[in-house]
Design goal:
Blueprint: E1 4-6, H1 7-19, E2 38-40, H2 41-54, H3 57-64, H4 74-79, H5 85-98, E3 103-111, E4 114-121, H6 131-147, E5 154-157, E6 167-170, H7 178-191, E7 196-200, H8 230-241, H9 249-256, H10 260-268, H11 274-292, H12 297-303, H13 309-320, H14 324-331
Helix pairs in contact: 1-2, 3-6, 3-7, 8-11, 9-10, 11-13, 11-14
Length: 344
């Protein structure tokens, strides 16, 4: 995948450009276009170049924060299901692994209300991120954090070795003109320090509710027709509300108010397990995405909480009877919303 880039990031920039009256380059050829999981790396770079030509680095950072333009996409739903910055970062890092991103964001230090991050090349990838690529990723993370209602959010760009060029940006209650922001960012780009960030926010406070226009819309009824006991349906609705979350046995037990052992015993008496319920719920919401959207298998699998593409393919086929690709090929367009074909 070294010659390809994540389509989700490119979709964000292209849609944000259009929303701000800028002109994006023509979409890449092919039937999938920007609905695929990857686009040619050359196209991503052409989009970034178009932003820089029409607005500069400041405009790039501001456009990348417009995560609202991804509303309706599976990646948007998965990221905005996070409860705060640390979980958002965990979900972002899982997305990078899932789509085999050439670059990754690693956490180098953490404390309550603080995360130090580094955007760098994956092992085996020789080309480091271009400063503009790092800036776009940073913008998306900042935009998602703000959409989650994180308070007191600010970012410091640069490293301890570039003390004279470190840039501290308060993200809330401040408006920096794109041209001024470009002038502040350009030295960091020249030094190669754009991929080092420190995020700070107010810890131990409840985040504000995500605005309804940005809020992911879960479908919690997809397992209601199954002949399960009330406890299993309670768990399924919980999973369907945020399938991308890490639904461990301990987390599910905490949700029900039962001990881990009591929950497992109650389910096993009906021939069920936490794993079966979680995978069933995830498979059903994945089936809905496959039928009703053009989004790639990789993005759908990520948004539904599967660990990677083989895991998605294996578990979906086990519960539905077909692989995700064959399921979409067989049934997409065969019925309206809600007409899921599950061979269970």
């Amino acid at each position: 995948m070294q010659d390809f880039a994540s389509a989700a990031m490119v979709r964000l920039l292209v849609r944000a450009m259009a929303a701000h009256g800028l002109v994006p380059p023509p979409p890449p050829p092919g039937a999938d276009g920007l609905a695929a999981s990857h686009v040619p790396l050359a196209y991503k770079r052409s989009v970034v170049e178009a932003v820089l030509h029409q607005g500069g680095l400041g405009t790039l950072l501001q456009l990348a924060q417009r995560v609202d333009v991804l509303a309706g996409d599976p990646v948007h739903r998965a990221l905005l299901g996070a409860t705060g910055v640390p979980e958002l970062m965990a979900r972002w890092q899982r997305l990078e692994r899932y789509v085999h991103s050439r670059h990754q964001v690693s956490t180098t230090a953490s404390a309550p209300g603080t995360l130090a991050l580094h955007h760098h090349a994956r092992p085996g990838v020789r080309e480091a991120p271009h400063p503009t690529e790092s800036l776009a990723v940073l913008g998306a993370l900042l935009g998602a954090s703000q959409a989650l209602g994180v308070r007191g959010l600010q970012v410091e760009i640069g490293t301890s070795g570039t003390a004279d060029r470190r840039l501290n940006l308060p993200l809330q209650g401040s408006a920096i003109a794109p041209a001024e922001l470009h002038a502040q960012l350009a030295p960091l780009a020249a030094q190669g320090a754009m991929g080092h960030w420190t995020l700070r926010w107010e810890p131990h406070t409840r985040t504000a509710a995500t605005p309804p226009a940005l809020q992911p819309q879960p479908t919690t009824h997809l397992c209601d027709a199954l002949p399960w006991p009330p406890l299993a349906h309670q768990l399924a609705r919980h999973v369907l509300h945020d399938p991308a979350a890490q639904h461990t046995v301990d987390a599910l037990a905490q949700h029900t108010g039962l001990t881990r052992r009591s929950l497992q015993r109650a389910l096993s008496q009906r021939g069920l397990s936490c794993r079966h319920i979680v995978t069933e719920a995830r498979s059903r919401v994945a089936a809905q995405w496959l039928l009703e959207s053009p989004h790639s298998l990789a993005e759908i699998g990520f948004a539904c909480g599967f660990a990677d593409q083989p895991h998605f393919t294996r578990e979906f086929a086990r519960h539905v009877g077909l692989t995700p690709a064959r399921y979409r090929q067989a049934f997409a367009g065969a019925g309206g919303p809600g007409s899921l074909k599950l061979s269970i």
